[in-house]
Amino acid sequence: MAPAAPSPPFRRPGHSQIDLPPRDPLLAGCAGGVRRAGSSSAIPSQSARVDRRRGPVSPPASEATPAASPELPEDILMIVLATLEIPDLMRAGCVCASWRSAYTALRSLDKHKQAQTPCLLYTSESAGEHVACLYSLVEKRVYRLTLPEPPLRHRFIIGSSLGFLVTVDDRSEMHLVNPITGQQIALPSVTTIEYMKPIFDDTGSVHEYEYPSHSARRAFFTPSIMPRCELRECFQFKAFVFHDTSAGSYIAVLIHRPYTHLSFARVGDDKWTLLEPHCDYQDCTYKDGLLYAASTTGEIHAFDLSGPDVTMKIIKGGDEGFDPDAVHIVQAPWGGLLLVSRLKEFDDPDEDVDPKIPVPNTREIKLHKVDDGAERLVEVDCLPEHVLFLGLNDSLCLSAIDYPALKGNHAYFTDDQQYNQARKSSRRDIGVVGFGNYNSKEDLVSPQLWSNWPSPVWITPSLTLMKLPPNDRWLSGPLCGLPKIEEGTLRGLFANLGIPISIGPTGMLQCLKK
User: Fold this and answer.
1) Is the preceding omega at residue 258 within 30 degrees of 0, hence cis?
2) What is the pTM for the complete model shown?
3) Among 129, 418, 465, 483, which one is most buried in terms of CB atoms within 10 A?
4) Burial of 157: CB neighbours in 10 Å, binned 0-12, 13-18, 19+
């Protein structure tokens, strides 16, 4: 059996990332890549503009001639644009050349508004396979964005952090994709997770996986063989990408089965590292070099990822009687941690849905304050002037004062049900609920806008590009998302460039010294 080819590290733009759309994201916004649904154009009317080459256009004599408005200095215009939500900012960059210049400068300096209001990202059959729809809670409007290959409707969405979606393609490989900028980055291969065993065909390509029979070095059940496209149905649970401010880099974290363990990868890693020996994790957050992970029993563990050797500290042990249907761990704006539990009812499925699996329906959300070393959780009744965002996203607690479009003392939630893959055609568990008054649950929008699969997710729009260090090993593994190039074509391409190469039995390419 051939060994697995080493997986590439986080792939940097311009090399092993999947091809970006052949468009400037801003121009795409004007032309239809980011536009209001149902609008024929996002570009303001040209009739009132001034042509600087010919001077102002004279109006008919019957009209009053308004005084020409001088252009704002670029630094003043940048201050104004920096206050906008990203959809408005991108449209503002389409107004004229000077506004586009201010927009470009604002973006290159990373001075645009950082505190963006989360939006609901979803797909719609009518919008097309490559289109993501973004529902703005500020404007109560929908924007459409065209994403790179593979089609979003063919992927699973397993997370959302820092403006990136974490998706799984039909080969069960994972990618980060920013729906605003189009930037897409391949994460280390699923074959590098400690107990995942790839099975190769005669050409050296992975075509099946041996689903693990053990976890944390303990045997649990007989291994099973499954096609590469089916692994994602039962393996990946939830994923995150965190900014490690101390190192100026990024860390990806994956909760995966069996038994919802944790693995992580830093930028530059070509494989995942398993965090042993605990399990049953449901959510994570990251702060100051510490990865906080919450389990279904109410346990909270802190993993120190800042050094070469990972250490773990138990922040809080299990709580007897704590038995929610879902758990979230949230960084509070005042500096502490909140453990949020969701209690659900399970309704009968719709008659036309197959298979007949009960549909979860969030009926109550409870808040608990986390005290380091405390034996029991302390329940909190409400969150005055604060808002929670819960689901497959990196769980958020925001100030309603800073985000006036949001309802204080409420939670905005989407599906986080771990068995979503088995009920793709069932309705989603999405809504808004007030703390302390659980009869206040309401629909986010009616009628429903989204397709039920892939699951809609909260995302905080971001124009920031993930800057990755140069890496000379980007050809050391499969280019996720790209079609396979025949060996003869590949050899001819490099021969024309005068570069001698060798290609191993697994398809790994190596450049030879002249």
Assistant:
1) yes
2) 0.76
3) 418
4) buried
Residues 6+ apart with CB under 8 A from 134: 87, 119, 120, 121, 142, 143, 144, 145, 179, 459, 461
Residue closest to 152 by CA, chosen among 166, 142, 138, 140: 166
Q: Contact at 8 Å (CB) between 182 and 20?
A: yes
Asked if the structure places residue 111 within a domain, the reply is no
Bridging pattern class, strands 386-390 and 410-413: parallel
**Tens digits of residue pLDDT in 308-353:** 889 999 888 877 777 777 899 999 888 889 999 887 777 776 666 5
Dihedrals phi, psi of 238, to nearest 5 degrees: -155, 145
Q: Are residues 358 and 503 in the same domain?
A: no
Whether residues 182 and 270 share a domain: the answer is yes
Return the sign of the alpha-carbon dihedral for residues 335, 393, 354, 235: negative
The closest of 220, 395, 190, 217 to 294, measured between CA atoms, is: 395
Domain that holds residue 507: 484-514
Domain boundary among 412, 442, 459: 459
- Categorise residue 204: left if φ over 0, alpha if ψ from -120 to 50, beta otherwise: left
Distance CA 133, CA 122 (A): 5
The half-sphere exposure of 416 on its side-chain side, counting CA atoms within 13 A, is: 30
Question: Collapsing DSSP states into helix, strand and coil, what is residue 27?
Answer: helix
Q: Are 422 and 494 part of one and the same domain?
A: no
Domain identity same for 406 and 501: no
Distance CA 407, CA 397 (A): 12
Summarised one tens digit per residue, pLDDT across range 5-32 is 445 556 544 333 333 333 343 333 333 3
Structural domains counted in the chain: 2
